[in-house]
Amino acid sequence: MRTNPNRPGSTIRHEQMLNDDGAKAVRRLVTLAPGAAAGPIRAAEYRRCRIDQADCAPEAGAARRGFQQTRDGPRPVALMEALGFGRFAVVGHDRGARVAYRMALDHPERVERLAVLNVIPTVDQFERMTGGPSLGYWPWFLLALPAPFPEQLIAAAPEQFLRFVFDSWTADPTAIDDDAFAVYLAAFTPAAASICADYRASFWLDNEHDRDDRRISRYIECPTLVITGAEETQLADGVDVWREWAPDVSVHTAPGGHFIREEAPEGKAAPGVPRDQLMAAAQTGCRRA
Prior knowledge:
The chain is an alpha/beta fold. The chain is built from 11 helices and 7 strands.
């Protein structure tokens, strides 16, 4: 079986969340974050492992094809097993969501619930890149070009690169304040090689793996929550796409665009959602192996 990686060199944060009376958490939640600015998920009774993907370096020979979401190697499933957790929930945003749904596909006996933010499956992403919407998906092609060309572009103008992303992918660019932007920028250039390797993998490998699974009607077995931004019009039909991959799908549309954490923090989203639904992802039957 293909397995889902925690990229080589990734930072792993194992956090013990405590409830109000200080009791130890009893539920397990894995979060996969594509950048250094990923912040905490507030919880009363959850144990969380957060895997930051921004600081992983590409392995030798990966300059052309890059990482893949389904490559053998150190991985979140092995991490959770090492910590003694047999079943757990997974939440991922953007690139982290792609790792998360592959975990659910490749390890249905481990992943109990799934939440994916601001994505559709990779194969569907590539198939819809035609006409006007394709302009918004420029990183999928530019950053997938052979090294070192895209890495050099990032290194030459990292601030301009990020400004363009935040200006064009958010409903309100001011949602990314100066402090948050500084965190993103500090992490961006050092992570350029792994970012590009990830996009190369999507082009060469992950697309193929998704297509193979779709052909044999392999689907996500666990309950799946899909969250998108209201201004992400290209994902307006995202829930319909996900229902082709998972029989049990719920959906929430948050205010703003692609950067939900900054654009729709707690208090701006609809009452009780998405925080309660995200927390519900960790509420059933997680137990030690």
